[in-house]
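Case study 2.
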Amino acid sequence: MTRQGARRGYTLIELMIVVAVIGALASIAVPKFASALRNANEAATKGKLGAIRTSLQIYYADTEGQYPSDLTPLLQPGSRYLTQVVPLYTGDHGSSNDIHYLPAIDAHRPQGERMEPVLNAENGCEDLSKRAALVSRYATPLAVLLVALGVAISQPVSPVKELSIGLLVFGLVFNYAALPFISKMKDPSCCVHIRVFVNLAANALIVYLLGGYWKPAWLLLALTPLATAVYDSWNKTLASSLVVGALLLLIEATRKLSSPLEWAETAANALFIVLVSLLVNELAHHSRSERA
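Prediction:
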């Protein structure tokens, strides 16, 4: 007799192919979306600058040939020139990390009142290398703790144990070796993104190998979108967290989950990765705008 209804999970090769396809699609879609957003910001700013230019021309005519030294005379309460200088996009068009905005100036704002900063304050390459070191400072100990506890407590079979430890050691050496290069590079953004991708691949393999023995291993996957949240924009953080959430679901699918409770637990973990990553991104950008 043959077994009826035998179930077969995904192989590691199939899983990595799916991840590669998702990554390729995300790498195409996200930059195009970011470019469209930049173009929209530029068009809006041109219109706002046109309104300021018109107000200056009216002021010039009213004062018989004198321009104001700043915009304060145009913003007097009850004036017919301007009621508010709205935020202006003044970012470097080459990198989303350099996009920043001029804060709004309101004619009716009480003197001395603090203006609310806008997200995405100016960040240079030096700041990016500092953020890379910050991520390593906290993410690396967490990865070591998760893998060490998983190997010590769950006692996986011999190949899984050695491979998990080997991947962990590779990640440690790779991350700490990359930091000096990042700090010395003129534009470290490419190196930072390569570092994130390599870490994701290593962590995914560890979760694939060790996750069947040690359930908390899935937290390793959360490190990639959390790092993206510190480095990059909200849109890229969302894309990264969605890809990692899908990757977690695919890895768990290889374990032939049959219980609705198991699938619900995995879906909750994936949702946790997405929401916490977006929260960290909002907090990181808000913190930098506060300092600016």
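Residues 257 and 263 are 7 Å apart (CA to CA).
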